[in-house]
Amino acid sequence: MKKVTLKRGKIKLSRLFKSEFQTSGTLTAEFKQDVEKITVYSGQVNNGFSDDIFGQDLIGKETEYKKSETRTAWYKVDENTSVEQVTKMLEANPNISIQKILSNAPILDDGQKEAIKSGLTTLDQIAENQACKYGDGENEGEYILRNGNPIYKVTCVRSNVVEDVNDTDSEPYLTEVMKVLLEPAEKIVNSLSDDLF
Fold it and tell me: Considering the entire predicted model, what is its pTM?
C-alpha cells in the first residue's frame, strides 16, 4: 500500500518583470512555491503473491520517503501593478497555489490553441518548450522519458489548492526533432520490452 501527501509552502512573489515578448499593458509576476511530496509505503509482507513465510507480520510498520521541489509559475498582471500590491494580494489569499500538470502530449491553454490556429506558433514549438529535460549533469539537456516517451509539464497559478494532474499514460506526442533524437532510445526500450514476455 502507498499513501502520497503533498505539503505546500506559502506561495511567494519571486519577481515582477517585463519579458521580451510581453503582452502590451502587462507585466509578468513570477511565483515560487516549495512543495514536499511524502510517500508512505506500508510494511505488509503478504502482498497477494508472496506468503509471509517468516511470520513477520509487518502490517503497520511503514517506510516514509520525502522529495522536495520548488515550483515556478508565471502570471500576467496589469503594468501598473506594484510588488507591494502583489504581495498584499498573496497575503489576503493564502490558498493560492501552483498546480503541476504532466502529460505525454503538449498541454495547451486557450491562448496557445488560438496562436497555433492563427499560425503564430506550432504545436512542435510549444512541445519543445514544455518537454521536461535534465538539468546540470551528465544528461544535461536530454529529454526525460517515461516508457520511451517525453514528458511535458505545465505549472499554473490556482486560486485554491487543486490536485496535481498526471496524464503520462496518454497518447504520446513527439516532435520531428524528438523522433530523430529518440529513435535509438525507442529501439532500446522496444527490445527490452520484447525480452520481458
Answer: 0.79
